[in-house]
Write a structure and sequence with these properties.
459 residues; Rossmann fold; pyruvate-formate lyase- activating enzyme; OB fold (Dihydrolipoamide Acetyltransferase, E2P); 3 domains; 6-stranded parallel sheet; 5-stranded mixed beta barrel; 13 helices; binds S-adenosyl-L-homocysteine; binds iron/sulfur cluster; binds FE3-S4 cluster; TRAM_dom; tRNA processing
Length: 459
């Protein structure tokens, strides 16, 4: 391979998956991945539009890359012409605006068109050669399925892999851009997903994380031609030789069907960890968010899951300072956190997004109120996360050892509950990497655990 590609990934795991696919689409064209934009012929920013900060970061990165691109263009720096592309959700949401605001950008594309990346790069190069500048925009939602045009994944090398099974969202929460950037909900057929899982297993993948913006709304064409739910799909994937663990993210409380809840009790491969965003503990706020669930229905789902899997670790997303959120509403969120108990969580200040209904709502919450609420909420969540990790000390857990750590003989893995575990494996490290091993947990830090290989390896 002679040409070099640099991809920077922002945002969620679906973007991580997409970036891997982009690299695979470009490989047959002779592009190898490099670690820095300086070393690249083509730079792709795979962007995120979810909050204002995420989107603004892209523009500041473009500013820095413009300097590099100009220096290369003027021959002040080796490497020749550099093609600068913006893909992902900012590309989708602000395609034309990017071209206007940032003339250094040669190409803009969205999450649904990156299988056409090689063609776009050629078009951009031709336009640059002819007119001195390029403006290639491809932000359609093509009717044809992008997945049909992607090479099959080779796996990123490790034993844990992402597999996108569903895309888009029809929920239209009033704060969220995803239905606009990713389009309508779409589920891949079971057959395609199973084939991809088999290929991943063949290259050593042990753990699958099934991805979708609304992954438990999955309803793909099943092997019998009928509509299959996520639970049925997971049961089938659990039969793929080599696949020992299955996770899924991100799910919506409204789509936690009975069979999916049951799967947490019945399916051995289904890990005892669930990321289930609740956003708020106030029914008034949840209604204004158009979430379609209440605090009570959320508590009920967790209670049913824990009745089947008492050790289930629960994670969530929270938004503080949604328009109209009062102190009482916020306190209801804090109470929900105390009641449920989370092993980890992500929390954000509400960020008004152009084109979403909430951005026009009256009663926007002042920034300093958002700051104070976020701090109180994160303090509580951090206490819960620390307590959860400390409670793991002394346990012997099955840990998937994913990669080498910083020290000799140390491997880094994941517990069934998604905790990062630093494991002292000594001389056995080379033998156990990529495998699931029993690990005795020796200490619990706020963000990780430490352990050593247990003497008894029987799982
Ligand atoms: N599909 C997932 C989440 C997608 S976005 C779901 O339905 O839960 C990831 C998280 O970003 C959301 O759960 C939400 O907590 C947060 N988020 C989305 N839009 C936001 C906004 N405008 N301001 C602040 N946080 C937001
Ligand atoms: Fe956004 Fe709501 Fe859809 Fe999640 S369910 S992606 S928060 S609109
Ligand atoms: Fe961001 Fe798009 Fe994911 S907006 S969170 S990268 S779906």
């Amino acid at each position: 391979m002679t040409k070099k590609l640099y991809i920077k990934t922002y945002g969620c795991q679906m973007n991580v998956y997409d970036s891997e696919r982009m690299a695979e689409v470009m490989a047959p064209e002779g592009y190898a991945l490099v670690e820095t934009p300086e070393a690249a012929d083509v730079v792709v920013l795979n962007t995120c539009h979810i909050r204002e900060k995420a989107a603004e970061k892209v523009y500041s990165d473009i500013g820095r890359l413009k300097v590099l691109r100009d220096e290369r263009l003027r021959g002040e720096r080796a490497g020749g012409d550099l093609v600068l592309a913006v893909g992902g959700c900012v590309g989708q949401a602000e395609g034309a605006e990017i071209m206007q605001r940032a003339p250094a950008v040669d190409m803009v594309f969205g999450p649904q068109t990156y299988h056409r990346l090689p063609k776009m790069v050629i078009a951009a190069r031709d336009a640059r050669a002819l007119h001195g500048k390029a403006r290639v925009i491809d932000t359609e939602f093509p009717a044809e399925e992008k997945f049909d045009h992607l090479p099959s994944p080779r796996g990123s090398g490790g034993p844990a892999a992402f597999l996108t099974i569903q895309e888009g969202c029809d929920k239209f929460c009033t704060f969220c851009v995803v239905p606009y950037t990713r389009g309508a909900e779409f589920s891949r057929p079971v057959e395609k997903i199973v084939a991809e899982a088999e290929k991943l297993a063949a290259v050593g993948v042990v753990e699958l994380t099934l991805l979708g913006q609304n992954v438990n709304a999955y309803h793909g064409v099943g092997l019998d031609g009928g509509d299959w739910s996520l639970a049925r799909l997971m049961a089938r994937l659990g039969e793929v030789p080599g696949i020992a663990r299955i996770r899924y993210t991100t799910s919506h409380p409204r789509d936690m069907g009975d069979d999916l809840i049951a799967a947490h009790g019945e399916l051995a491969a289904c890990m005892p960890y669930l990321h289930l965003p609740v956003q708020s503990g106030s029914d008034r706020v949840l209604a204004a968010m158009n979430r379609g669930h209440t605090a009570e229905s959320y508590r009920d789902i967790i209670a049913r899951l824990r009745a089947l899997r008492p050790d289930l670790a629960v994670s969530s997303d929270f938004i503080v300072g949604f328009p109209g959120e009062t102190d009482d509403d916020f306190e209801a969120t804090m109470q929900l956190i105390r009641d449920v108990g989370f092993s980890q969580a992500y929390s954000f200040k509400y960020s008004p997004r152009p084109g979403t209904p909430a951005s026009d709502m009256a009663d926007q919450v002042p920034e300093e109120v958002k700051d104070a609420r976020l701090q109180a909420l994160q303090t509580l969540l951090f206490e819960q996360q620390k307590a959860f990790n400390v409670a793991s000390v002394g346990q012997v857990m099955a840990v998937l050892l994913e990669r080498v750590g910083r020290f000799e003989g140390q491997l880094i893995g994941r517990s069934p509950y998604m905790q990062a575990v630093n494991v002292d494996c000594g001389a056995a490290a080379a033998d156990v990497i990529g495998r699931i091993a029993m690990v005795e947990i020796l200490s619990g830090e706020p963000h990780s655990l430490k352990g050593r290989l247990a003497t008894d390896q029987a799982a």
